[in-house]
Amino acid sequence: MQEFLPQFIQQLFNGLSLGAIYALIAIGYTMVYGIIGMINFAHGEIYMIGGYVGLVTLSAIGVNSGVPVPITILCMILIAVAVTAVYGYSVERIAYRPVRGGPRLVALITAIGMSIFLQNWVAIGQGSRDMAVPNLMPGALQFTVGASDFTVTVTYARLMIICVVFFLMVGLTFYIKNSKMGRASRACSQDMHMANLLGIDTNRVISFTFILGAMLAAVGGVLIALTIGKLNPFIGFIAGIKAFTAAVLGGIGSIPGAILGGLLLGVAETMAAAYLSSQYKDIVAFGLLIFILLFRPSGLLGKPEVEKV
Amino acid sequence: MKNITSAFLAAVLTGIMIVPIFGLQLERKGINTEIVPHWSIVLWGMLIVFAVQLVKPYLFKKRPGVRFNLPRVPTLNPKSTNLLLGLVFVAAIIWPFFSGRSQVDIATLVLIYVMLALGLNIVVGFAGLLDLGFVGFYAVGAYTYALLYHWAGWGFWEALPLAGVVSAFFGFLLGFPVLRLRGDYLAIVTLGFGEIIRLLLINLYEFTGGPDGISGIPKPTVFGYEMTRKASVEGAQTFHQLMDWKFSTMDVVIYLYLMALVLAFITLIVSNRLVRMPIGRAWEALREDEIACRSLGLNPTRIKLSAFTLGATFAGLGGAFFAARQGLVNPESFTFIESALILAIVVLGGMGSQVGVILAAIILTVLPELARQFAEYRMLIFGLVMVLMMVWRPQGLLPVKRPQVEIPNE
Fold first, then answer.
1. Are B144 and B316 in contact (CB under 8 A)?
2. Smallest Cβ distance to A110: which of B20, B130, B390?
3. Residues of chain B with C-beta less than 8 angstroms from the C-beta of A134
4. Neighbour count for residue B396 (Cβ, 10 Å)
């Protein structure tokens, strides 16, 4: 029993850092869904591309070039964000805009096609094998809890994820709440047609949503690459599905819901890996999803959808 | 001038996208990762996009009044339809005897996909329930036969009906939780369900063989006679001994093809009849409007469950056949990409249109096989085709024409 608390705290930190990444990706899903009601399957790939751009930047700067580590990481994130913003914009413009307004299935198939395309796009450009990402932040925060011998180890990289994501979330919430664009995007998610009538350029709002989502996902990609230390072109898919699960869990269309869902999913998965078996963590994630939807089909923070005739 | 600016902008955006992926390629040198620049690729990419953007307005200028008339499934009277169907069926039976081995092999694969797509067509096309985990039922069918063979020594023909029944049961089970869900929630739950099945197959190591799967699954027998060089049981007669033929592996390939043909044909007939039955009409009604359907006294629970169960049954039968054809099953064959492929076939064919689905199955299976020499670019092209098809022809290749009356608006 004495061992339980520190181990629990250890897993909580691991889960929160993983969940923070899910939350970052989930926001992209939830915002896009909230506005145009489509599942952007290619979103996970944007996250993966973010990781790759970060790695390219890191290799361009050089690991031991004397540039301070925080500046290197900042550069990686900024460049990754810039490039994926272009990806997010182009994907929407080329693939999704022409099928908007059509049947939902068509948009979904387009997105799945885009996801397959982007995976292989990167696989051809950068090779489909695992790429090693050098560890920029060795070392960890270590502490003990109470009288137990078990040392809780939280690597700096994981701490960084939690901090960065926390500040991004606060910033995002303020931005959506107070800025002109944020207000416009909230208006669009309530009623796109009405927003258009009131003079909001809905096309711009949709592009903005995709760009913002892509940028957040890219930050997630860079951070996870630095933490886990490897990358391959196919990591985006499963991360994307998990993040979507997180978005549904929290109630799709709701940004706080996506954050909550991401964190919950990350913690649940890590706990399942620690206390059940590491092989069952994905099953737990999907099982949780089905379970939640059974009892709260609109997610934890979502509003129940009322269908009108 | 406006054209040039927009083309220039597009080229710059392309440049930004290509540089980190193709322009600066990462290469591993020992423990270090180095960057090898390939600027020419970037320049070419930008140039091509610039040129295309520049001429695009002239190429795709919208001419008012001119509209392409989309080909639809021509309406024939039932008699000639049956005749045509019969002719195609006979041609399909005769064809493999005059064809090469690899062609017949690919044709068998096509037929498996036809069967799966027709099964999914019931769920997605007729009942309008978006199912992204269809491959789960396919896996259940394949593993039912594989496990029955592995643990109990069952043959294909004994296992086939059971594979259908077990898959149907799983479809029924999945049907329950998703009854309350709509649209995209439904999609994601079915996706989760498909993934759970795959993950369970990987993780139940003792029972399913884990990632290695189960191998050495025997091919189907012909009325109890094996299609192998030597009988597996001492003293038993094999098929070629019975017929007094020389043993050839081509016979097995053709036999498998014919079986796939029969299975696909049965699926076609059954699903074709089903839509015309009250249950099929109910599916379509449910797809069009659930609330109206409910108001008319139809029971959505029963309708949805029947669609899921029937779709899953066909997937299960296809799965059992797949296991027999491959001789081995492993979880690798049942990934999400497979579900996406089957769904793409259904949507590309024109939802609910059976002829379209068959055509799309042929295109989507044969094209990647033809592109084998570009193996690296295969999936890239596949993804691109999926996107382009949806952009240009979202209603599918051969959309169904439903009898309808339009009320004039004016």
1. yes
2. B390
3. 33
4. 25
Q: Looking at residue A209, what is its pLDDT? A: 93
- Give residue-wise pLDDT tens across range B167-204: 999 998 888 777 777 667 788 788 888 888 998 898 88
Cβ contact A191:A18 at 8 Å: no
Residue with the two structure tokens 């089903």: B274
Q: Cβ–Cβ contacts within 10 Å for residue B255, how many? A: 17
Q: Which residue in B181, B199, B377 is closest to A283 by CB distance?
A: B199
The mean pLDDT value of chain A amounts to 87
What global pTM score does this model have? 0.86
* Closest chain B C-alpha to A284 CA, distance in angstroms: 9
Confidence of residue B309 (pLDDT cuts 50, 70, 90): very high
Q: What per-residue confidence (pLDDT) applies to A300?
A: 81
Dump pLDDT digits (tens) for A105-149.
Answer: 788 888 989 999 999 999 988 888 888 888 888 878 888 777 777
Residue A142: phi and psi, rounded to 5, are -125, 135
Calpha distance B324→B256 (Å, rounded) = 9
pLDDT digits (tens, 9 = 90+) for A148-176: 777 888 888 888 899 999 999 999 999 99
Is residue A131 helix, strand or coil? Answer: strand
State how far the Cα of B368 lies from the Cα of B366, in Å rounded to an integer: 6
List of long-range contacts for B323-327, beta carbons under 8 Å, 24+ apart: B323/B141, B323/B142, B323/B143, B323/B145, B323/B146, B323/B217, B324/B145, B324/B156, B324/B217, B324/B218, B324/B219, B324/B220, B324/B256, B325/B108, B325/B112, B325/B219, B325/B256, B325/B260, B326/B217, B327/B215, B327/B216, B327/B217, B327/B218, B327/B219
What topology does CATH give the domain B85-219+256-392? ABC transporter involved in vitamin B12 uptake, BtuC (1.10.3470)
Q: Where are the domains of chain B?
A: 2-59, 85-219+256-392
Instruction: Return the residue matching tokens 């220039």.
Output: B8
Cβ contacts from A onto B, under 8 A: 174
One-letter amino acid of A121? W
User: CA nearest B105: which of B263, B253, B227?
Assistant: B253
Angle at A140 between CA B27 and CA A62, to 5 degrees: 25
pLDDT tens by residue, B192-241: 888 889 988 988 888 888 888 888 888 887 776 776 666 666 666 677 66
A256: Cβ–Cβ under 8 A, 6 or more apart, which residues?
A: A173, A250, A301
Asked if residues B334 and B201 have their Cβ atoms less than 8 Å apart, the reply is: yes
Q: Is the pLDDT of residue B20 over 90?
A: no
ipTM field: 0.85
d(CA A35, CA A33): 5
**Better-scored residue on pLDDT, A3 or A9:** A9
Neighboring chain B residues of A309 at a CB cutoff of 8 Å: 291-292
Q: What is the mean pLDDT of chain B?
A: 83
Suggest the residue from A81, A99, A252, A289 to mutate for an interface test with chain B (most B CBs closer than 10 A): A289
Q: CA-to-CA distance for B100 and B109, rounded, in angstroms?
A: 15
Distance CA A103, CA A95 (A): 14
Give the closest residue to B211 by CA, choosing from B61, B335, B331: B331
